């Protein structure tokens, strides 16, 4: 019995660890939600307030991760990322039968847009959409299959063991020490033209952008490398840029939907 309990605890630990390695940190997602909230049209704000009972985009932004522990939602796990060869484009590779982040975003948009969709379905897929657009802008969610989007590339961050995926998911953002509202409020100030430029294109353009960034990040480290202040200083502007892009593009998608 003792051996059985230990096995169960180990399995739970591994499941939780893997789940934590496949997501932006809560701070990252909430920052994206906050940025989007600040760029919604009046019409979108009213529609979202009604659907979400007044909850903010920052609050619901982690919903798709929160439900991972419930096996009822296991089929949505592949929606958080997409892996394909670094020398290919998304449209050049056969899509996974289980789906991916691009498929997930398109599915969410279709259900929200459908006038015949049930209210509870619109709410669920809206929460998923907010999260998935955030995931799309974490470059290691658009990485290589063979290393699980950088999860197998082991590193050290300020003396703590980590991997390339987790470094970009959580380590850099969480160790920066700002809340999501502080991060959102201190991102670079952009002109209207700069915002329009960032919001151009669609999910197929944005996935390629993240894919190109993932290529750069793969080359930014060596397996077993000890990282710290130098790496954070060099790449923090990239973190900020991805958070800002994710929020502005989420706002664009929502404004078009509502």
From TrEMBL:
This is S1/P1 nuclease. Coiled coil: none annotated. CDD domains: S1-P1_nuclease. Keywords: Disulfide bond, Endonuclease, Glycoprotein, Hydrolase, Metal-binding, Nuclease, Signal. InterPro entries: PLipase_C/P1_nuclease_dom_sf, S1/P1nuclease. Residues 1-19 form the signal peptide. SUPFAM superfamilies: Phospholipase C/P1 nuclease. It holds the Pfam family S1-P1_nuclease.
């Amino acid at each position: 019995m003792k051996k059985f309990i230990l096995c169960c605890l180990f399995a739970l630990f591994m499941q939780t660890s893997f789940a934590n390695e496949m997501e932006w940190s809560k701070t990252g997602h909430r920052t994206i939600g906050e940025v989007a909230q600040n760029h919604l049209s009046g019409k979108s704000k009213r529609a979202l307030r009604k659907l979400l009972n007044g909850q903010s985009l920052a609050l619901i932004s982690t919903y798709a991760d929160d439900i991972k522990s419930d096996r009822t939602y296991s089929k949505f796990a592949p929606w958080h990322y997409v892996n394909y060869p670094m020398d290919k484009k998304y449209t050049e590779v056969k899509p996974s039968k289980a789906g991916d982040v691009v498929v997930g975003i398109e599915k969410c948009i279709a259900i929200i847009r459908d006038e015949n969709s049930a209210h509870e379905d619109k709410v669920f897929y809206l929460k998923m959409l907010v999260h998935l657009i955030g995931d799309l802008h974490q470059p290691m969610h658009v990485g290589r299959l063979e290393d699980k989007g950088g999860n197998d590339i082991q590193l050290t961050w300020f003396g703590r063991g980590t991997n390339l995926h987790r470094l970009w998911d959580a380590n850099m953002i969480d160790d920066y020490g700002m809340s999501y509202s502080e991060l959102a409020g201190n991102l670079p100030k952009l002109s209207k033209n700069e915002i329009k430029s960032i919001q151009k294109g669609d999910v197929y353009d944005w996935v390629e952008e993240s894919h190109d960034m993932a290529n750069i990040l793969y080359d930014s480290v060596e397996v077993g490398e000890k990282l710290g202040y130098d790496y954070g200083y060099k790449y923090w502007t990239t973190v900020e840029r991805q958070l800002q892009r994710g929020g502005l593009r989420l706002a664009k998608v929502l404004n078009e939907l509502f």
